[in-house]
Design a protein that fits this description.
Elements: H1 2-10, E1 15-20, E2 26-33, H2 39-43, E3 52-58, H3 62-74, E4 79-85, H4 94-106, E5 114-119, H5 121-133, E6 139-144, H6 147-153, E7 158-163, E8 166-173, E9 179-182, H7 191-208, H8 210-218, H9 220-224, H10 228-248, H11 263-272, H12 279-296, H13 304-314, H14 326-333, E10 339-340, E11 343-344, E12 346-351, E13 354-358, H15 363-374, H16 379-389
Parallel strand pairs: 2-9, 3-4, 3-5, 5-6
Antiparallel strand pairs: 1-2, 7-8, 10-11, 12-13
Helix pairs in contact: 1-10, 6-7, 6-10, 7-8, 7-10, 7-12, 11-12, 11-14, 12-13, 12-15, 14-15
Length: 391
């Protein structure tokens, strides 16, 4: 553990992480930088001199970064375009993708051209899906500007859009050609958005690295102050964890499913709340529920759920869902895209830092776990209380 902590504390400077396929060949690089200045160097291997690049971004990010990224990209390619769509999860729809298709067609983009996703997870998912389906597939790059997108959605090639408030129900696996992170973009994030990124980062520690999870707690004050000396090793470690998982299982046939820790009931919460709570917030609540279920089964020590809840609280993540019942959560989970032959695949903990997929979780167990998210007592707890006070 001390050795791992030493690694976290002493990593300095920017760097590049290659992502490889199962055959060992490199698919793309993840660049971790403290500015956009190295973007032309990162783009050089893509041979864009005779190609066009369309930068896709939303109405919040465009005023902050679109022009600087466009100018740097223009030095590497024949022509650049910027496409701006309205910000917000509610715009992550097939209708918005249709508008992007129309823009690309009108501008004459062909199979050799490239899309660049500049923004958060919504932008990355939408741009990736458009790239996967436009002309049966063109290249795209990820330039994530939120902490959540940097450590999660920009890596691994999952793309998609929501359908009638069902999260990412329509999508495709389409690997980016480059992921370029300017970690200084986290400086402009509202506290709530920064906390959302921490929801996924905490998940990484819970599923793969207990020492990392403890390090996050020990460095909470510096992380919340967005100290570059801790942000860089934190983002790097989370990227390493996700990279290792997706390299082994790129299309979620096995191991990659552990990345869905906290997502089964978390996605259900997003649905029930009509996407009014942010993704990272719902993942944090779902992680508490999954820890509760793991604890109930005797897989992890008593108090693990409380430990997870306290860590979430420390990083500004919500403790309960307002005005939602466990039954609503479980009903929404039954429509999740991760269903397999009618059975929900639930990610549980054997220990902090060791997750696995369990297809045997019952409805009663999920109701008990969801009660923890909703701040209500489970049926078992109510029954126990009744037995105690009965005359």
């Amino acid at each position: 553990m001390d050795k791992t902590h030493q690694k976290f504390e002493t990593v300095t400077g920017t760097g590049c992480l290659p992502v490889r396929g199962r055959d060992g060949n490199k698919i793309y690089d993840i660049w971790l930088e403290d500015s956009f200045d190295a973007l032309p160097k990162a783009l050089a291997p893509l041979d864009l001199a005779d190609r066009r690049v369309c930068i896709v971004t939303d109405s919040n990010v465009a005023p902050l970064y679109a022009e600087s990224v466009r100018a740097l990209t223009a030095a590497c390619c024949r022509q650049t375009e910027v496409y701006v769509f309205p910000a917000g999860e509610e715009h992550k729809t097939l209708d918005e993708i249709r508008k992007l298709y129309a823009f690309l067609i009108e501008k004459g983009f062909d199979r050799g051209d490239v899309l660049a996703a500049l923004g958060g997870g919504v932008t990355g998912d939408m741009t990736g899906y458009a790239a996967a389906t436009y002309l049966r597939g063109i290249r795209f790059i990820q330039i994530p500007t939120t902490l959540l997108a940097q450590v999660d959605s920009s890596i691994g090639g999952k793309t998609g859009v929501d359908f009638d408030s069902y999260k990412n129900m329509v999508g495709a696996f389409h690997q980016p050609s480059l992921v370029y992170m300017n970690l200084r973009t986290t400086d402009t994030l509202p506290e709530e958005q920064f906390a959302c990124g921490m929801g996924e980062i905490l998940k990484h520690g819970l599923i793969r690295d207990e020492a990392y999870y403890e390090w996050l707690g020990e460095n909470a004050e510096k992380i919340l102050a967005r100290d570059p000396e801790v942000l860089l090793p934190m983002v790097r470690r989370s990227c390493e964890i996700k990279r290792a998982v997706v390299e082994e299982d790129p299309t979620e046939k096995g191991l990659r499913a552990i990345l869905n820790f906290g997502h089964t009931l978390g996605h259900a919460a997003e649905k029930v709340m009509d996407l009014k709570l942010l993704h990272g917030q719902c993942v944090a609540l779902g992680s508490v529920a999954a820890a509760r279920l793991s604890e109930r089964r005797g897989l992890v020590p008593e108090g693990t759920c409380g430990r997870v809840k306290e860590m979430n609280r420390r990083f500004g993540l919500p403790e309960v869902l307002p005005d939602v019942s466990p039954e609503q959560i479980v009903e929404a989970a039954a429509h999740d895209k991760k269903m397999d032959a009618g059975q929900i695949k639930f990610v549980l903990l054997r220990a902090v830092g060791d997750a696995y997929v369990d297809p045997t979780v019952t409805r009663e167990e999920m109701l008990d776990a969801a009660s923890c998210m909703c701040g209500t007592k489970s049926r078992a707890e109510n029954k126990s209380r009744t037995e105690v006070v009965a005359p």
